[in-house]
Design goal:
248 residues, alpha/beta, 12 helices, 9% strand, globular, five-stranded mixed beta sheet
């Protein structure tokens, strides 16, 4: 395997499929390449894409899409076991409530709604992320986790994993923002929001992830306490994660 493999896999049917490897974590060790992948949804993968996943040894996919999202756009990739960890999207419902209240939806509204969503990841959806960590601890077999765009639910999950491995927050943020370089926004036949609002909703901003990480710091006193209290990842579990996913 090359010392520095490509971070983006450039799949035809998933624009945001990326490797979390290569970042420096605890003790100066680096995250192992070709073990942990994050992505947008996998329903548009081509046969060649599926062969690429097979060659990588990816045998597990963890899907954060909500129940309706998953049912509307299902997928089946040979050799890949699927695990549903549904986190229901709430931004659309909140935008609808604002519109029904007679408010014009602005980019500022969209930013606030996204920040609320990220804070909800911390407080309302910890159980889903805890389940993902249990699978991470069970085996280091290559896996991918994803949602629809691979940017919000997936972005917070990636941040949790990297920070649990000791990757600094500024590096985690840089990885998070790569979505803006890779993700291809869908072409909406009947967009229900102005373009400038959609540009907020379909991209990522530091303010979004910071809303979640700041909530972790303010409400739990830091990531290690949050990991232990809410995700069942204490000191022993973090040492095991490091043994599985870090290399000197």
């Amino acid at each position: 395997m090359p010392l520095h493999p490509d971070r983006s896999l450039a799949l035809a049917g998933a624009s945001n499929f990326r490797d979390l490897g290569g970042y420096q974590g605890s003790g100066g060790r680096t995250v192992r390449w070709r073990k942990l992948f994050r992505s947008d949804h996998l329903a548009a993968l081509t046969p060649e894409d599926a062969r690429t996943l097979g060659a990588l040894g990816v045998g597990r996919a963890f899907d954060f899409r909500g129940t309706t999202e998953r049912a509307a756009v299902p997928y089946d990739v040979a050799g890949v076991a699927q695990y549903s960890l549904p986190i229901e999207p709430t931004v659309v419902q909140r935008m609808k409530a604002l519109a029904e209240a007679g408010e014009q939806i602005t980019p500022e509204h969209a930013v606030q709604l996204m920040q609320q969503t990220y804070r909800a990841f911390v407080h309302d959806n910890a159980g889903r992320f805890a389940t993902l960590f249990q699978h991470l601890l069970d085996s280091d077999a290559p896996l991918v986790f994803h949602c629809t765009a691979g940017k919000d639910r997936t972005g917070f999950a990636a941040a949790l994993i990297l920070m649990a491995l000791g990757v600094p927050r500024d590096v985690v943020m840089r990885d998070y923002l790569l979505t803006n370089d890779f993700y291809r926004m869908p072409v909406l036949a009947d967009p229900r929001a102005p373009k400038e609002v959609l540009n907020v909703l379909w991209r990522v901003q530091e303010d979004f992830l910071n809303a979640a990480l700041d909530a972790v710091d303010a409400d739990y006193g830091g990531m290690p306490i949050y990991l232990e209290r809410e995700l069942r990842v204490g000191e022993a579990e973090r040492r095991r994660l490091e043994a599985l996913y870090l290399v000197s």
